[in-house]
């Protein structure tokens, strides 16, 4: 008698044809063919092993650095926000899973009298996204405080890697191909919690004054070129307030592109191309996008 191989038991949630609009801070883009919300790391590893070897994968944190095109993503989105959410602090060593919000890490570290993570307070992403982007602000940068990263590959194999195994640059991290972040360990100095909390408040106040924080955007659209600021170049090219469809160059911070309410991903992408062409023409500088663009055009 033949015995059929048993199916792995999955404890996460699989959603089909899921709109991605509510999973990114621009609030735009088409659906994912399927989305998996893992119950935990072990469940995620089991799920990955069920996928075909060539399944397109998109790892999604809080979608604060992603332009998802209007045709959506014809593969599997792995959603980590609110899922891999464990965080522990032990004697200056901080362990955070990839789905933990950066703001929570900043807050909890300050509460534990640790210094060096305040810069994470205003970054509206997950720790997984911060590791992938080498997110930074106000002189702080993610990989300067990372000591170890835990990763997973598409066969569900989990590895512990030292920070010096990665090539890290401004808003860029070279990772081994087809490995994604599950967690990291940060090393922080002992500090003064009250001073850290005051620093967090000052950083958030500064953002509120200089950035359109209440509007749908993905933060800085372009990387700063060496020795200059993308916002200065865009403003000097007369592009503040420039509008295409429902997408607009912010009048408050020229490196932010705002969804004024009805923008499509195509509006945003076309505005990005227009800004890049105008800055090249007026300033002779080729801007590079910081935002990642994924999915298909409709
Ligand atoms: C108002 C505003 C202000 C911002 N300010 C800053 C700032 O000061 N400094 C700064 O650096 N950024 C800033 N950003 C951009 C953004 O918040 C950061 O890039 C952040 O690190 C992205 O995290 P996320 O979880 O949203 O990633 P997502 O946008 O979900 O993903 C970004 C990229 O990382 C990949 N990724 C996500 N999770 C993982 C994972 N677990 N493993 C492997 N790859 C993964 C995704 O596939 C994608 O390519 C800002 C954005 C906004 C909207």
In short:
The chain has 298 residues and is an alpha+beta fold. It has helices at 41-50, 102-111, 127-133, 142-145, 193-210, 230-236, 265-283, and strands at 13-19, 31-37, 57-60, 66-68, 73-79, 87-90, 93-97, 114-115, 136-137, 140-141, 146-153, 158-162, 167-169, 172-174, 179-187, 189-190, 243-244, 247-249, 257-259, 292-294. Helices cover 25% and strands 28% of the residues.
Structural write-up:
- With 298 residues, the protein is an alpha+beta fold.
- It contains 7 helices and 20 strands.
- It has helices at 41-50, 102-111, 127-133, 142-145, 193-210, 230-236, 265-283; strands spanning 13-19, 31-37, 57-60, 66-68, 73-79, 87-90, 93-97, 114-115, 136-137, 140-141, 146-153, 158-162, 167-169, 172-174, 179-187, 189-190, 243-244, 247-249, 257-259, 292-294.
- The relative contact order is 0.15.
- It binds flavin-adenine dinucleotide.
Percent of residues in helices comes to: 25-40%
Order of helices and strands: EEHEEEEEHEHEEHEEEEEEHHEEEHE
Spatial separation of the terminal alpha carbons:
50 Å
The total count of strands amounts to 20
Q: Give me the side-by-side strand order of the main sheet.
A: 6-7-15-11-12
Biggest sheet features: 5 strands, antiparallel
Poorly predicted regions are none
Q: How would you name the oligomeric state of the polypeptide chains in this document?
A: single chain
Strand content: 25-35%
Cα-based radius of gyration, to the nearest Å: 20 Å
**Mean of residue pLDDT values:** 96
* Shape designation: globular
- Which small-molecule species are bound to the chains here? flavin-adenine dinucleotide
How many separate helices? 7
- SS class: alpha+beta
